[in-house]
Amino acid sequence: MNQTAQVPIPRSIKVEACAQAAHEMNRLWSFAHGDASHKPWSEAPDWQKQSAIKGVEGVLSGNSPVAQHEAWCEDKVKNGWVYGPVKDPERKTHPCLVAYEALSETDRLKDTLYVGTVTLIAQVLGLEPGA
Of 24, 35, 79, 85, whose CB count within 10 A is highest? Predict the structure, then answer.
């Protein structure tokens, strides 16, 4: 019988895998709704990757889509972003810096898909919520 020992995957690798999957889902969702500005994970700037990783931690701690959006807004504001009609990383403006209820249905669904994607990938990888 040939058994190979499984090497445990570090939690940080699992979290980043969840962030990458959620980022790509976000990118595809945005593209399907007319926004082709999102770059693939491999080309995404560090601030965007760090935001996705923080989002994963939020989902793993139990954030609902509403709580997830609120945490995202708080993080953006803390990093100098403000509401603006157009997403502009250089000017740090974003049209989604509004209360969850003020988001479009498309953006509310994007938050729901983000939480669902993270939850599913975390389950597949054996990454326990709150761990």
Answer: 24
